[in-house]
Automatic annotation (TrEMBL):
<dbReference type="InterPro" id="IPR000073">
    <property type="entry name" value="AB_hydrolase_1"/>
</dbReference>
<dbReference type="Pfam" id="PF00561">
    <property type="entry name" value="Abhydrolase_1"/>
</dbReference>
<keyword id="KW-0378">Hydrolase</keyword>
<dbReference type="InterPro" id="IPR000639">
    <property type="entry name" value="Epox_hydrolase-like"/>
</dbReference>
<dbReference type="InterPro" id="IPR029058">
    <property type="entry name" value="AB_hydrolase_fold"/>
</dbReference>
<feature type="domain" description="AB hydrolase-1">
    <location>
        <begin position="52"/>
        <end position="294"/>
    </location>
</feature>
<dbReference type="GO" id="GO:0016787">
    <property type="term" value="F:hydrolase activity"/>
</dbReference>
<feature type="region of interest" description="Disordered">
    <location>
        <begin position="1"/>
        <end position="22"/>
    </location>
</feature>
<protein>
    <submittedName>
        <fullName>Alpha/beta hydrolase</fullName>
    </submittedName>
</protein>
Length: 318
């Protein structure tokens, strides 16, 4: 039986806001970790700031920590909720439920529990998959959606199995991650090799060594964390089937599509235009796959401009 959120313990250790390495100055004064009981599972979120609610969802294989450079500035205008979805970080790690429909439902319940019937959202990578699902499945909940650096299976055209060497370097993990057991057997004990390679190949400029090590340590600390990192991909058959239905109902809310110049670039916007009618595109210069860490100033500028109408509408009603 789950405890009510008011009686849950305070998150501790490296996965929490108090235990993560090299956070921006003053971060601990603004943000705290908390567990939220959704009724089905316990999710970990780092929350702080005041204003309309803004949900941040990182991608594979990262945690809430990916947003650390943006969070203090965003907290001046928004109540920020940076969440570890099921299977990630300090959140519960059930055996199933990694299709984007279930993941989106988790987040809606999370925001209900935190008292936010409406909110804006930013999703990166796999978080972009879930953001699209949430906007499509729960259109009454989201005011604005910003997404970054992903194609969306079932919405985007599938990449060829035999593409260019560059395409293979970026996308081979899709097939590998969908395997049943052998991927876990090959990666366990070699998490630094596998995930380190992913960060090195996709970043336009190297991420800080301590950040990469932090992500690797979180994944290596618990066999269930490694298993869950693959479950998002193992659930792709279900996610693709869901997205083929979602694309028949184009999104009407404003969408901001962010790409890195050295990675997907304008392709992020092209993907979202397959599923939405009101899509803006921003390409961040000299940036690879991890804009919140590689180009936080540029990403903050893009998000601030896009979210300004949402913020002003909230202020006019308080």
């Amino acid at each position: 039986m789950h405890l009510s959120s008011a009686h849950l313990p305070t998150p501790q250790g490296p996965g929490s806001a108090s235990g993560a390495p090299e956070l921006p100055d003053g971060f601990a004064d603004l943000f705290t970790s908390r567990y939220v009981d959704t009724g089905e599972l316990r999710l970990h979120a780092v929350t702080g700031g005041s204003g309309p609610a803004l949900l941040l969802l990182a991608g594979w294989p990262q945690t809430w920590y990916a947003w650390r450079f943006l969070m203090p500035a965003l907290a001046r205008d928004f109540h920020v909720v940076a969440v570890d979805p099921r299977g990630v970080g300090l959140s519960d790690k059930p055996r199933d439920g990694y299709d984007t429909g279930t993941l989106a439902g988790d987040l809606v319940t999370l925001m209900d529990s935190l008292g936010h019937p409406r909110f804006a959202m930013v999703g990166h990578d796999v978080g972009m998959w879930t953001g699209y699902a949430l906007a499509a499945d729960h259109p009454d909940r989201l005011d604005r959606l910003a997404v970054a650096e992903a194609a969306i299976p079932g919405l985007s055209p599938s990449a060829p199995v035999l593409g260019t060497r560059e395409t293979n370097e970026r996308l081979w993990h899709f097939a590998f991650n969908r395997l049943t057991d052998v991927n876990e057997q090959l990666v366990r004990g070699r998490e630094g090799v596998y995930f380190g390679n992913q960060f090195a190949k996709k970043a336009g400029k190297p991420l800080p060594e301590h950040a990469v090590q932090y992500y690797v340590d979180v994944l290596a600390s618990d066999p269930e964390a490694l298993r869950c990192s693959f479950e998002f991909y193992r659930a792709l058959d279900s996610t693709i089937a869901q997205n083929e239905k979602r694309r028949t109902r184009p999104l009407s809310l404003p969408v901001l599509a962010i790409g890195g110049e050295l990675s997907l670039g304008a392709a992020v916007g092209a993907t979202m235009r397959l599923g939405g009618a009101d899509v803006q595109t921003v390409v961040l210069p000299e940036c690879g796959h991890y804009p919140a860490e590689e180009a936080p100033e540029h990403m903050l500028s893009a998000l601030s401009a896009f979210l300004a109408p949402y913020r002003e509408a909230w202020r006019s009603h308080v």
